[in-house]
Every structure is written in C-alpha cells, then in structure tokens.
Automatic annotation (TrEMBL):
Residues 10-74 form the Polymerase/histidinol phosphatase N-terminal domain. This is Histidinol phosphatase. PANTHER family: EXONUCLEASE (PTHR42924), POLYMERASE_HISTIDINOL PHOSPHATASE N-TERMINAL DOMAIN-CONTAINING PROTEIN (PTHR42924:SF3). Pfam families: PHP (PF02811), PHP_C (PF13263). It comes from the Bacteria. InterPro entries: PHP_dom (IPR004013), PHP_domain (IPR052018), Pol/His_phosphatase_N (IPR003141), Pol/histidinol_Pase-like (IPR016195).
C-alpha cells in the first residue's frame, strides 16, 4: 500500500515453485502480509517464469519488484528491477571476465545489482567477483541453508562490508549499502530478515533509488523497531544520509524496540567504539569519525538489526 514517503519493509530475495522454492506466489503473498512486509522481489534462479505470476500480490496491496537470482558458476547476484520477461545470462564465472557486461545489462533496464550471500557455504555460493562491481551487498541471508536466522556466514559478510566502509567513505564520501533478505525457499522463512527502506513510495523506481542510496536498515522481523539519528549544530541526519557538522560535536542516538535486553554497538572507521542499551546516546566529531553505523544484538550475540551508516563531514 502506498503511504507516500515512509519506511517500507520488504524482502528482496524470494523463491517460489517457479524455480526451487516450495511455495506458490499465492502462499508467499499470504506469508509476506503475515510477516508485515510491504513489498517483495521475485528472484527465481535464471528464469523469468514467475514474473507474470503475482496478480494475487498486487490485489492484496503487496508491491512486487521484478528480478532474478543470477546463479553463475562462481557466485550469485540479484538483478532487481529488470524488465518483465528479461533473463540475465548466468553461464559464466570470474575467469570468463564478462560480469561487467551483464551488470550493465541489468542497469540499462533500470535495475540494481546485488552481491548475494557472499560467504554462502555451498557450491557456487562463495562469491568470487569483486564486491565493488555491485550496487549493494547482501550481508544478511536467511534460513534456507541454516536453522538459524543469524549464522557465521552472515557474520563474515558484515565484517567484510564493515572493513570496506572506511575506504569507500574516505575515497568518495559514499559507500556500498548493505541489505538483508530471507532467500526464502520453504514455509515460514519469508521476511527473516527484512530490509526497511525510507522511500517516497513502494513503487519499484522509488524503492531501488532508496536502496541504492543506503536509506535502509535490516531487521530480523517486523517486531523490531529502530530510530537512528545524528545531530550537530542544529542539523540532523538519518541512516544513509550525510551530516555536515561544521566542526560541532555530533550526538548519535539509537532507540530500539522489540528486542528484549538489546545491546547497541556503534561502529566507525575506528571499529567498535561504543555499546549501550536499547536507548543509546553517544557523541563524536567528524574529525574522530568518518561515519557511524549501529548493530543491535541479542544477549547471546545474535544480530537483531543493523544499519547502513550515517556519514559525518566537517
């Protein structure tokens, strides 16, 4: 449902019976609504077979982004927002040196390109292409190959992404945004995790533009709520935005709901710099921190939510 500019919850990596999933689009629509989602992306492996199968979702007020999981020989990637009926080629690996051509094909159609589950522990799942070729990276992948919504593969992906942030922000002032998706194949998986994105509407161009800009955070479920801001000299910024501090001290605030006994960990280009409870306040300057991002953890260390950064400039 279109609520105008708002936070929209979605799952951008979903499989149905049209590839190797077990659920029909009708069943996935029901699960998406039950999981509190506003949109999902249809991303079957190397086929457009499901692109025309989602009238049920649209009638229910669930927006559907047309996509594909491009399952190459040396890593999987998501082409989101391509044309209905379009199939991006997958029959190559890193040694063929053709990935740029296929990324360009998806982008010409208006799509964004996502490095999927870069540390997946199964054949062709380990990602061999340079991550910087892609618009986004999927740092949190769901339950399909695990009985846990958070596992070591995701921990490795977040760590790798986090290490690259400082270089990206220092070099360009920007960053490669992170997203999280369920990779749902079986009942009960959809929406764990989900990406929460601030967009003008749930239309595909608006969602993709917001995802590309990093105006998003990842939650383990719709039960998790999060506010994340930085303020300095009368100005404020939220996730994915840049705060011009004009030399003033920046006050970072995080407020979490839906995670009992949550621990908030704040990270900058200096690594982990602060931890606190579900209502956390911390101060820094642009000279001390190129950016700040938040991780929300359960008492046992499992991730409950994580954000893209707020960039700080003098």
């Amino acid at each position: 449902m279109d609520r105008g500019p708002d936070w929209y919850r979605g799952d951008c990596h979903v499989h149905s019976v049209h590839s190797d999933g077990e659920l029909t689009p009708e069943q996935l629509t029901a699960e998406a609504l039950a999981a509190g989602l506003d949109f999902l992306a249809t991303t079957e492996h190397n086929t457009a077979a499901a692109h025309g199968a989602w009238d049920c979702a649209r009638k229910a007020g669930l927006h559907v982004v047309v996509g594909e999981e491009v399952t190459t020989w040396t890593g999987h990637w998501l082409a989101l927002g391509i044309e209905p009926g379009q199939v991006v080629d997958w029959q190559y690996g890193v040694r063929e040196d053709v990935i740029g051509r296929h990324l360009a094909e998806a982008r010409r159609a208006g799509g964004v390109c996502v490095a999927a589950h870069p540390h997946a522990p199964y054949p062709s799942g380990d990602f061999m292409f340079p991550l910087e070729y892609f618009d986004l990276v999927e740092v949190w992948n769901g339950l399909w190959r695990s009985d846990r919504p958070w596992n070591a593969d995701n921990e490795a992906a977040v760590a790798e992404w986090g290490r690259r942030l400082a270089v990206d922000v220092q070099a360009t002032g920007g960053f490669q945004p992170a997203i999280g998706n369920s990779d749902a194949h079986l009942p009960g998986q959809l929406g764990t995790p989900q990406t929460v994105v601030f967009a003008p509407s749930p239309r595909t161009p608006d969602l993709l533009a917001a995802l590309r800009s990093g105006r998003s955070w990842i939650a383990e479920s719709a039960a998790v709520g999060l506010e994340f801001t930085a303020e300095a000299d009368g100005r404020s910024a939220g996730v994915g935005e840049t705060l011009v501090t004009r030399g003033a001290t920046a006050t970072v605030r995080v407020a979490v709901t839906g995670v009992p006994e949550a621990t908030v960990r704040l990270h900058t280009d200096r690594g982990k710099v602060h931890h606190g409870g579900p209502a956390t306040r911390w101060t820094t300057t642009a000279e001390e921190s190129l950016f700040v991002r938040a991780e929300i953890r359960h008492p046992d260390g499992r991730m409950a939510a994580l954000t893209n950064p707020i960039v700080l400039t003098p």
